[in-house]
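In this section we walk through a basic example: taking a raw amino acid sequence and producing a predicted 3D structure, encoded as discrete structure tokens. The instruction is simple. Fold the sequence below.
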Amino acid sequence: MSAEEYEFEEIPGLPGSLPDGEKLLWQGSPQWWALARRSLYVVPVSSYFLLIAAWQGVSIWQAGMGAQPLLHGIGRLLLLGGLAVGLLCLLAFASARATVYSLTNRRIVIRHGVALPIGLNLPLPQIEAVAMSRHRDGTAELALALPNAKRVGYIVNWPHVRAWHYSRPQPTLRAIRDGEQVARLLTQALASAGGAPGAVPAGEPASRVAPTSLHVPATTQAA
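The resulting token sequence is shown next.
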């Protein structure tokens, strides 16, 4: 497992040509709006500014300060909120454009980074378990559990890590479409490479899914 810079890519998302015997099974990128909602929390941030603007408006109205201060106070907060949400959406869009997830029959490669592209090279035999979460917007996450000795940096690889798992960060394919198809490909690749048994619902042991099973159960979460 390694992290490396991607200065030149013969194959988009990969640091070089694939060695003999290695083949590319799938490539994809996050959906930027799903990434913005679940990683950058644009909906809670929007709600926060709307509530503050409403509270400000009620306070000004009750104080009898007139329409002009009311519009000025609400407008200023809405402008600040719009700028904050806009910056978060721009960051999510740029992050999604700069990210490429690659699955081969030997490894998973996560290339990300807007200003400085870097990558995670994760050999399949080092993956202990895979947890899948599906969402109502049609996207999914695949979190990869690694041994304690193969830690990755949480901050360096954010947002492509599982949320709230700080002590043992789990590299994660975030906001991908066709999650079940990717999970099946990963399940087959892991079985062939002698890695984890397959993709399982978050929080459940990988041993619940047989190595040769193509059925990928998963938790369903709100978008």
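Looking at the output, two observations stand out. Residues 200-223 have pLDDT under 50 and may be disordered. The helical segments are 32-38, 42-62, 67-98, 154-157, 179-193. In the next section we compare this with other chains.
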